[in-house]
Write a structure and sequence with these properties.
Strand order of the largest sheet: 1-4-3-5-2
Strand content: 15-25%
CATH architecture: 2-Layer Sandwich
InterPro entries: Tubulin/FtsZ_GTPase_sf
Helix content: 25-40%
Number of domains: 1
Shape: globular
CATH topology: 60s Ribosomal Protein L30, Chain: A
Number of strands: 5
Radius of gyration: 15 Å
Order of helices and strands: HHEHEHEHEE
CATH superfamily: Tubulin/FtsZ, C-terminal domain
CATH class: Alpha Beta
Number of helices: 5
Structural class: alpha+beta
Largest sheet: 5 strands, mixed
């Protein structure tokens, strides 16, 4: 379970997160960025994870941060292809040089090696200068299990 924002984090970390969040296009996007950062750095289930310094390093520029989100049925045999198709469509209309991507999947239906290969193939298609950090985490089983991706891009 993620720590509550402002209740446990040191003030300097809160200030850093706030400065990153202000780079969103809309108040809703700023709130989504804040939620993503706080949940991601406090996620005890993150298999490949991030810390606040990753966000600071990647998003130190003054540019706007956009949120990309995709979701598909976690039980679908083509779930990674469908998830990537959604992200690809969003990437086509959003220009960026940095990306932090987190994929969430149910514990009972983990990512497979072939799905990770598809993800790697997608990363290989980006221009050489684009920096990508990615990670994944497990979620508890839900009534409608989803494979979900959230990316912050700048």
């Amino acid at each position: 379970m993620a720590k509550k924002f402002n209740s446990v984090m040191p003030e300097n970390e809160i200030n850093i997160i706030e400065s990153i969040c202000k780079k969103g296009k809309t108040p809703k996007e700023c709130a989504t960025i804040k939620k993503f950062i706080v949940e991601t750095i406090n996620d005890g289930n993150l298999m490949i994870g991030f810390d606040l310094s990753d966000f600071m390093t990647l998003f130190h520029n003054d540019g706007t941060i956009s949120v990309l989100e995709a979701s598909t049925d976690a039980l679908d045999e083509n779930r990674m292809e469908k998830l990537l198709d959604q992200l690809i469509q969003q990437c086509e209309v959003t220009s960026f040089h940095e990306m932090i991507l987190c994929i969430r999947c149910p514990k009972v239906n983990e990512l497979t090696m072939s799905e990770l290969c598809l993800l790697g193939d997608w990363f290989d298609k980006f221009d050489e200068g684009i920096q990508i950090l990615w990670g994944f985490t497990h979620e508890e089983l839900q009534d409608n299990p989803q494979l979900h991706a959230t990316a912050l891009v700048q």
